[in-house]
Amino acid sequence: MRVTVTVNGERRTADDVWEGESLLHVLRERLGLPGSKNACEQGECGSCTVYLDGVTCCACLVAAGQADGREVTTVESLGDAEALHPLQRAFVDAGAVQCGFCTPGLLVAAHDLLARDPDPEDSDIREALAGNLCRCTGYEKIIDAVHLAAERMAAPADGGAR
Amino acid sequence: MTDTTSGFGTGFETLAGARSSTTEGGVGTSPERPDGVLKVTGDFAYASDLWRDDMLWGVTLRSPHPHARIRGIDLTEALTLPGVFAVLTHEDVPGRKTYGLEHQDQPVLAIDTVRYQGEPVALVAADHPEVARRAAARIAVDYELLEPVTDAVAALAPESPQVHAAGNLVRHVKVRRGDRTVRGEVVVSGDYEVGMQDQAFLGPESGLAVPDGLGGVDLLVATQWLHVDQRQVCSALGLRPDQVRLQLAGVGGAFGGREDLSMHVHGCLLALHTGKPVKMVYNREESFFGHVHRHPARMHYEYGADRDGRLVHATVTIHLDGGAYASSTPAVVGNAGTMGLGPYEIPNVEVDCFGAYTNNPPCGAMRGFGSVQAAFAIEAVMDRLADAVGLDPVEIRVRNGFHEGSVAPTGQVVDSAAPVAELMQRLQAMPLPPGGAELDLRRLPGGVSNTTHGEGVRRGVGYAVAYKNVGFSEGFDDYSTARVRLFAAGGVPMVTVHTAAAEVGQGLVTVEQQIARTELGVDVVVLAAKDTQVGSAGSSSASRQTYVTGGAVKAACESVRRLTLTMAATRLGRDVDDLRLEHGDVVDRTGGTVVALADLLGDAAVEDTVEWRHRTTYPIDPETGQGDAHVQYAFAAHRAVVDVDVELGLVKVVELACTQDVGKAVNPQAVVGQIQGGSTQGLGLALMEEIQVVDGKVTNPSFTDYLIPTILDVPPMPIEVLEYADPHAPYGVRGVGEAPTISSGPAVLAAVRAATGIDVRRVPVRPEDLTGTR
């Protein structure tokens, strides 16, 4: 089947999609967007977290056909190497990235949290990120990173915040 | 002591007189990791992200049975499916049909017998992963079911069926010291059990094999040790090392689970058969069958002490379930045997540690490697002994803990810092978290499940100590290779560092850059791709890479520096001993610039490749276990504070404090990250993580049923890092990664016992163990 999705603001089409393929598979293998990760492919780890019509979800649990005609936003849209989003910058600065496999999903989930609550407390961060597994860091530096990003976004020093 | 506090609220203590680097981004600082931006933008290429236009997808057909004879395999139905390019069995393995890290006992593809559930039987390559999966499902394997051997203790009885022709014993380590007839006045003993833990790295086993058209193959793969993989792949394919080139693809965590081969030979076989690139990516369920796990353990411990709580004797028996193939079981048995009494001075010891073959899933390396299992028993027995003689848990460890000069049960003298007492005392001095004044469901056992508002909740505090051998032991030739090149481009001096050391997330890439900056005084350090075009770096395991590959990079840089300074001295008529490299210049004793490096070098490059070894270790005596088997010991300690809902058996860890001696914090931020991550894996084993195996079959191969700690399960983790330099190690470093995984779980268990009064002797703790309803 043919699937047409608006991904990161751009209309994209994939042909010959098997009906059993997930949105995650189409993003990674057909549209050249491997940033969303395939850690469990059963909706338990959050590594493939994306926005679907503005709501976060696990792309592995969305059948590709379900995404047809809808808007998807992935980690690739947050910022690029020349203009990192403050969350991306904070994850690097705070040491929240080790192997990094959970990082794209955590960034999208944390982005969603800060959009709702620009100054979350530790417990709010823990609750918001409870669907995202990380095996390397023990999460402490991820909490540090979200606080750091929140601070920087509240008082942007160089106009870099979005 | 001077306090060089890092930027993230963690105090670092440095020994007086220890000189810390002033180089920007050098040793002792926490510069940005070179792959950090790529990882936050989604641009970092993990093994499962690799892609070629004309690539095929490979899948593995695995045995559903833990033990069976294969009477026949019919491929017809699979081969006729459109889109299928190859279906392979053991008959298609051109070289040696078995492989393994220590014993080559594991078939590349099952030959006539399967010995564990999940054993690879056949391979398919197709143009779509679903076509490959469907073809695999159409392969008809005729199995004759055999009774599985599922108990590691019973497996060693003479009447047990044999998993392998040579018998079920993989290794028996004996440690004997002192007088075995001497007994302490106060004796405690008990049986302890540890379940099977999974590494649960998030990036699944993956790789891309690309045939070169000349009979050779390039393999891009997520692994911990490229060269040991290359050796095994060459053997199975019957090819030379120059025909099998490996490159490290992005690794999504490892923790020991990537020491053994996964898709390596399979992907190469399919690529060579089809003439096309073949990608293989396990899904999570297959990942649970696609790598070895931490050995489950059954342990009998008896410790005796005098009335003052000073240890007199220990008698210990440990059984480790190695599963169907040896993997690294011999080394794990070596560790559990030689390290299995904890960091305590005990004059009279008798240890017997066994590793057995069974038809359970194969077990091998996981962070902590034999020491993790033993620590649960050791620390429990120490607490009971403290109780029996009327000491608190800190004091009994202070009284018996190793210090520099202590003699280990193997007879090896601990010849650098071993601050067990200080680690304990510092933990005890750290403030305790406040008790439950505030009612936030998210901080209570059961969390937002709203199972308690504080009623039935009891608090407990527990302590534990870890020690772990760093590097490969027992005479292993444990080395690393570094190639370092100093050159100038566009008027800027630069360094290229080339090693095969696997970056698995720990931040070794940052450390390699830091060392080059410090040694060569150059800001720009480029890392060459990690591949087999340079010599072996050894494994990214055993807490060894900063020590060993760090040592190799340092040595190669020192050589390049000598060559460069000699060039400068000769050219400028100066005394080489007066010259140094600093901030991209050759400077003299006053710090004044003699010549800019870029001008000195011009178009020339200075390069050297160095193989570097840590000091020699020795095998242990087979009857007494005596010998200088280990390179270095790492020490950590934990204090856990838990709240337990004693009515429901739910545990919430409130705080998990850690003290650790790291010798020298080469990268303070990464050190803290290792401690926090390692502590969390120990917490997971204590409270929730277990691969459940029933009659040889895994019942929970998913993240739905195999639980790892989430951000809600993990408490604040205050850390104090000590830096007592090890004079034998480069920069004084002491391996960091494993020790925190060893003591965190036992501390949590101790806290649970303190909260409930229940003498829990099995991990992970299940709710029913705490409610008496099991």
TrEMBL record, chain A:
CDD domains: fer2 (cd00207). Gene3D superfamilies: 3.10.20.30, [2Fe-2S]-binding domain. Keywords: 2Fe-2S, Iron, Iron-sulfur, Metal-binding, Oxidoreductase. It comes from Nocardioides guangzhouensis. It holds the Pfam family Fer2_2. Residues 1-78 form the 2Fe-2S ferredoxin-type domain. GO terms for molecular function: 2 iron, 2 sulfur cluster binding; metal ion binding; oxidoreductase activity. PROSITE patterns: 2FE2S_FER_1, 2FE2S_FER_2. SUPFAM superfamilies: 2Fe-2S ferredoxin-like, CO dehydrogenase ISP C-domain like. This is (2Fe-2S)-binding protein.
From TrEMBL, chain B:
Signal peptide: none annotated. Its EC number is 1.17.1.4. Keywords: Oxidoreductase. One of its GO terms (molecular function) is iron ion binding. SUPFAM superfamilies: CO dehydrogenase molybdoprotein N-domain-like, Molybdenum cofactor-binding domain. InterPro entries: Ald_Oxase/Xan_DH_a/b, Ald_Oxase/Xan_DH_a/b_sf, Ald_Oxase/xanthine_DH-like, AldOxase/xan_DH_MoCoBD1, AldOxase/xan_DH_MoCoBD2, AldOxase/xan_DH_Mopterin-bd_sf, Xanthine_dehydrogenase_dsu. Residues 41-147 form the Aldehyde oxidase/xanthine dehydrogenase a/b hammerhead domain. It is an enzyme of class 1 (oxidoreductase). Residues 1-35 are annotated as: Disordered. It holds the Pfam family MoCoBD_2. This is Xanthine dehydrogenase subunit D. It comes from Nocardioides guangzhouensis. The lineage of its organism: Bacteria, Bacillati, Actinomycetota, Actinomycetes, Propionibacteriales.
